[in-house]
Every structure is written in structure tokens, then in C-alpha cells.
């Protein structure tokens, strides 16, 4: 008796490009997890908070519209609203109304937020370098991806 329907289909081979992309995604996940853990443990802030503070600190006016901050951090409007609420509760940022458009809201970094970001930046850089070096040593595919990206020399 023959089985009904086609037999198992072999998966198409994975291209070098797709394989490299998978290694980059794996690296990204590993590094993000290490960064998040180090920032939380040493400075009591999450990775999104760190990145938001960085964008605010880098702004010439120390402020960004909520939507602009959402775009820079890669969050939707609802998520950035919660993020800014956490920053505000911790006194790292305040909300301010846009003088030209009363519907517009800015997020403004405070001195406390600027100080926390500066302190956490050292941890971020140290952890990032360590995580990339660890990945490079552990997995030759990741090492090749890092080299291709110019992340290691």
C-alpha cells in the first residue's frame, strides 16, 4: 500500500547569506541579553532606558518629541509612553509640552538621567566588547560575521 500524498520534502539548502544572517541574529540576541543584564545589575536600568537616555543626551536641546524618541529606540507609541513614564518616575527625564503645538510632548533628560547614562555607558562599552570577544572565540561563524561587519579587528 502506498501512502496518500507526497512524501517528505527535503528542505532547500540555506544560502550563505541566510546562514550569515542567522548567525548575526543569534549574536544580536546574545549580546542584547548580556547588555540588559549588566545594565540592570549595575545601574538599575534596562536597555531601552539606557538607549533612550543616550538619544536624549545626544540631542542638542536635550529633548526629543515622543514620536522621534519612539523611532530612535525602535518602539511603538504605547511602549515609548511607558518607557518615558519609567524614566520620569526615576527622575531621569521629564515631559514638557511643545510651545508651538500644545498637543506635542517632549521628553527632556534631567541631570540625574544624564549622570546615570554617563555611568552606565562604561558598563555598556565594557560588556559589549566582552560579549563580542566571547562570541568571536566561541563560534567561528559569528567571528566571520563580526569580521564582515567590521566589529572586530
From TrEMBL:
GO function term, MF aspect, one: DNA-binding transcription factor activity
HTH marR-type domain location: 21-153
Family annotation (Gene3D superfamilies): Winged helix-like DNA-binding domain superfamily/Winged helix DNA-binding domain
SMART domains associated with the record: HTH_MARR (SM00347)
Record-level GO BP terms: response to stress
Superkingdom to which the source organism belongs: Bacteria
Protein name as catalogued: MarR family transcriptional regulator
Organism of derivation: Sinosporangium siamense
